[in-house]
Structure formats: structure tokens, C-alpha cells
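Let us work through a complete example step by step.
Step 1: write down the sequence.
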Amino acid sequence: MADQLVGGVVMAKVCAICGKGRQTGYKTSRSHIRTKRSWLPNLQKVKIVVGKSSKRVLVCTRCLRSGKVQRAL
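Step 2: predict the structure and record it as C-alpha cells.
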């Protein structure tokens, strides 16, 4: 897992599997006035199997859909 650790604590709004996080860019109007904005990944709080135990983590929908993670029942 690609946990984003900062001081031993996992950061929020980051996928626990692939590390996908916030992306920044510009919102452009018709008159080409640009303002900064950001996009957040579609994260879901799911229970996954880690070793022999289960753990609740934030996982992006692309990792869920592609089968990179085993969901716990």
C-alpha cells in the first residue's frame, strides 16, 4: 500500500492504494479570466483485507473497480 504518512498519521483525501490526491488547475471563463481551483478524487471508505485482519481505509473508485483491493465482508 502507498500510505501517505505525515508524522505517522495517514493524510485525509488520499487513496490508500495508489496515493491519488488533490489536483490543481485553472477554471477558465469565456473571457479567458483564469482562477485557481482544485479537484478531489472520488474516495470511498471501505473495509479491506490486510493480512489476516480487516482495516477501514479511503480507496479511490478506480482502485475498487480495477480489483486492486480485496473488500472484507
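Step 3: interpret the result. The domain at 5-66 is CATH 2.30.170.40 (Ribosomal Protein L24e; Chain: T;).
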